[in-house]
Amino acid sequence: MNLRDNALTILQETSRTFYIPISRLPDRLLEAVASAYLCMRAIDEVEDHPDLDNFSKSQILRQISLNLQAGTENSTKEDFAFGLVHREILPEVTLRIGEWALLAPDSIAPRVWDATAAMADRMAYWAGNNWDIRTEIELDQYTFSVAGAVGLLLSDLWNWYDGTQTNRSYAIGFGRGLQAVNIARNHGEDLRRGVSFLPQGWTIIDIHNYARRNLKLADYYTQSLPQGPALDFCKIPLALAHGTLEVLALGKEKLSRSDVIALVQQITR
């Protein structure tokens, strides 16, 4: 199995939300977006690791960031995974970050490294502060650092591939909206591990409203896209985010598998 096919297999195992839209992209764009997603999944798994303390999380994330910042056209997969502590408990997707970093075409790979390095540094900051979010401004900071910036990267990837122009402010809102839906969906689980991403005084209704405001920007972003792979990609996670928010408001935990299949079929037919 070649790296591209193996990356898609790992992607399918880690995210039903993004496997479908990524797998439908044309080849070179698929490699770039899959590279970005898996690099960011690699650091996300560190941020969420149940057996790592916050100091160790920060240490690993900063090392990954430094490795990516040192990337050159001659870098090997080992270079990107250099110096990682606690390797024995890190998941496969994290240990293979060097392979994901090299999956993107050479002409755009450094942009993926740049975005992942910046995100890893920001995650390290938040882990070091135990994700202490007290105000909406701090929530905006966090959601930008782990998701809004992904919207900016995707805008760059669309432009690199076929010149597609996008509104970068809406791109940030897109990322923030998806992250806010994740925060709402995982709130109970996060509380059990001693973390809350809700600002002081906020209820679950407030984070739902925050998600809706930002998903409105995601709607604007998507509606402005021309026909093509960027639009085909964005429609799927956006519809799943709206659908998830609707079922959460009804007291359910998440979309069922049949719900996801029905939504995707409706969008892609």
Question: What is the compact description of this entry?
Answer:
By secondary structure, the protein is an all-alpha fold. It has helices at residues 3-14, 16-23, 27-47, 54-69, 77-80, 92-95, 97-101, 109-128, 136-162, 168-192, 204-223, 229-249, 257-268.
Question: Could you describe the 3D structure shown?
Answer:
The protein has two domains: 130 residues, Farnesyl Diphosphate Synthase (Orthogonal Bundle); 139 residues, Farnesyl Diphosphate Synthase (Orthogonal Bundle), CATH 1.10.600.10. With 269 residues, the protein is mainly alpha-helical. The chain is built from 13 helices and no strands. α1 packs antiparallel against α2, α2 runs antiparallel to α12 and α10 packs antiparallel against α11.
**N to C succession of SSEs:** HHHHHHHHHHHHH
Count of discrete structural domains: 2
Mean pLDDT: 96
What's the CATH architecture name of the largest domain? Orthogonal Bundle
Give the N-terminus to C-terminus distance in angstroms. 30 Å
- Secondary structure category: mainly alpha
CATH superfamily of the largest domain: Farnesyl Diphosphate Synthase
CATH class of the largest domain: Mainly Alpha
Number of helices: 13
CATH topology of the largest domain: Farnesyl Diphosphate Synthase
Question: Characteristics of this structure?
Answer:
269 residues; mainly alpha; Farnesyl Diphosphate Synthase; 13 helices
Write the layout of secondary structure elements.
Blueprint: H1 3-14, H2 16-23, H3 27-47, H4 54-69, H5 77-80, H6 92-95, H7 97-101, H8 109-128, H9 136-162, H10 168-192, H11 204-223, H12 229-249, H13 257-268
Helix pairs in contact: 1-2, 1-3, 2-12, 3-8, 3-9, 4-8, 8-9, 9-10, 10-11, 10-12, 11-12, 12-13
